[in-house]
Amino acid sequence: MTIEYFATRIAKHISVQAIWPDGRTEIIAVLPRDALSGLVTRNNQLIHIAFDAMGTRNRETILIDKQEHNADQILTAIDSCLRLEYLMERRFSRTPLFRGIIASVVLFVMATIGFSLFRYVDRVFWDDTTPEAVQTAGEPRLLPPHLNHTVPLNEGIQLPVPPKKDVQVPEKTITSKNPEAAAARHNLATVLKRNADRGMFTINLSSGHERTLYAFLDPACPNCRLLEPALKRLASDFNVVIYPVSVIGGEESTDRVAPLLCEKDAQKRAAGWHRLYSADNGMMTP
Fold it and tell me: Is this structure's pTM higher than 0.70?
């Protein structure tokens, strides 16, 4: 089996990645978008040739020089990415309404994922409507032993005993969960876990715990900044996985996150993410 290559657009950069036969993913390089017009391959090297205003070649820069990789296939992946981008821009450049619809769909999907995660966490930690809890709440309370026989009663007097009512357990608590909702939650958890395991576009704040919390955060979002201390505390009990997004900051957020995603060391990724919210980086810490 051979190594597969693909390239994706991230703001003003092109991320080149390789998928090894064992499934491992490696980010080979992050190249500037405006420096891809003079790419050539020579001796299994990916080289950028720069020209001056007169069209004369004046500088060559080796971008990728790794013998275990195939420079020709890498160049093909970059070319495919640029061609697809060109076709999309040419087709929809005159339809701002379509781009607005696409942006709305992306925001809706992100909001749906976030709301689903919130409902799941809320149900796990705060739901106490099990049949046992309902039945326990409906049973009459017994008097303490020191008050149970304080006043003697005449044995001939029969005190009315109210009939014990059957506690009606809500049908929702005793029936099985909605299969479609359960399947949707399972699929969502599977997708999030698979992407987190690949580690391409995620930042792991902690690991080694039984449960995992996924958070979609924007470095430019003030509400995300307020959530940062809580995530640090939760990281001691849960696997906290960050999915960086750019809903608020746009390209500015993307430019700040892109260097972190290129970092292979998970600890350096996490430390870099915390620095994004530090006062030295332009944000007031809570």
Answer: no
